[in-house]
Amino acid sequence: MRELRYNPLTGQWIMVSSIRKERRWRPQNFCPFCPGSEETGYNWDTLVLPNKYAVLSFDSENVKSEGFYRKAKSMGECGVIIETPIHDVKDLDELPIDQLVKVIKQWINVTNKYINDKRIAYLMIFRNKGEEIGVSLTHPHGQYYAMPFIPLKIRNMIQNSRNYFKRYNECIFCRIIKEEIKSKDRVIYENQNFVVFLPYYSNWPFEIHIYPKNHLQYITQFNKDQILDFADAIKLSLNSLNNLFDREMPYSFALIQAPLKGNFSNIFHIHLEIYPILRDKDKIKYAAGIEMSTWDFTYDGIPEENAKKLKDVCKKVNKSYRGICIE
Ligand code: UDP
Ligand code: ZN
Ligand code: ZN
Q: Superfamily assignment of 164-327 in CATH?
């Protein structure tokens, strides 16, 4: 059973599925993502596979709303992006830059696959890392959901950005980049094409956003240099997070692109958002009472001070990166 259910109070869609329950939880002695498994075969350096336990599928049963509640067909696709054949790589910052470029090229391929598919409204490419985040398989992998609706958060961003554009004739994301570069307080790192900062409005203690300096909406618009600098900025950011405390950082990240259909060329600006969940070596920042009930976050500490800590690790890890750490 799969269906989408609409919350008429908040405007959110819930992806309901009984299939998800069947997925194996950390199987021992066997990895479905290693080379030579039934699904993976041999001779690849990155691989895109359909998710075996997909909440969205073009084969989902047709459903029709009856009565008061709205529901819809759970249309779409969920995929897994295997980032290296090597099982023991702990995180993307351990990959050589050209391997990370190959991963980004798979993100481009996936985006190209759906960009003209009328059934898909939004594509979310994301990655979970670490036990505390609930990763069920440790072999390095990302995921994507090709969705038949635009998520509420993205709809909100678009509305705010449209309002800002009407008033100031400027992309609000570009404005944020300008503000950050001007003040430098929260900018961690810059290379030629990307800027890395801890947002003024961070939810997570060490949240990091990576923005292309050029105003672009989709990863398919990146040129060769931008792809390389994007890989470099991601590597540096994760390397910094993994050296912030004496342990690997659990996190999720999401590639925030414009919706696939419609014209967002003035008002949307692609970027990567990284949500690390530790606030200290052995302290997790939980999304709890206030965060769950209101969706508003409390921030333990001061963003500028945490940015300073990230600036310091950046200097430590930045030996062979393409850009500079910002004081
Ligand atoms: N999966 C798969 N094939 C398998 C085993 C798992 O496609 O043989 C999928 C599984 O449904 C899950 C993903 O791989 O969505 C593993 O993702 P992760 O551990 O990052 O997080 P999860 O999605 O489990 O929360
Ligand atoms: Zn493996
Ligand atoms: Zn912009």
A: HIT-like (3.30.428.10)
| Distance in angstroms (rounded) separating the CA atoms of residues 59 and 2 | 10
The answer to whether residues 2 and 145 touch, using CB atoms and an 8 Å cutoff, is: no
Per domain, the residue ranges of the chain are 1-149, 164-327
254, amino acid identity: A
In 268-323, alpha helices (H): 289-294, 303-317
144-190 tens-digit pLDDT: 999 999 999 999 999 999 999 999 999 999 999 999 999 999 999 99
Regarding pTM above 0.85, the answer is yes
Read off the pLDDT of residues 74-100 as tens digits, 9 standing for 90 and up: 999 999 999 999 999 999 999 999 999
Furthest C-alpha separation in the chain: 62
Domains 1-149 and 164-327 equal at CATH topology level:
yes
Residues forming the active site: 141
Rg (CA), the chain: 20
Encoded amino acid at 307, one letter:
A
pLDDT (average), residues 36-52: 96
Residue count of the chain: 327
Which two three-digit tokens encode residue 287?
Answer: 């999304």
- Tell me the DSSP string of 65-97: --SSS-EE---SEEEEEE--S-TT--SGGGS-H
- Please report which confidence band the pLDDT of residue 25 belongs to, taking 50, 70 and 90 as the band edges: low
**pLDDT of 249 higher than 90:** yes
Mean pLDDT on 314-321: 95
CATH class (in words) of the domain with range 1-149: alpha beta
Rounded to 5 degrees, φ, ψ at 310 are -70, -35
Q: Is the shortest distance between the CB of 135 and ligand 1 below 6 Å?
A: yes
Looking at the CA of 83, name the nearest ligand: 2
Q: Which atom of ligand 1 is nearest to the CA of 137?
A: 19
267 C-alpha to ligand 3 centroid (Å): 7
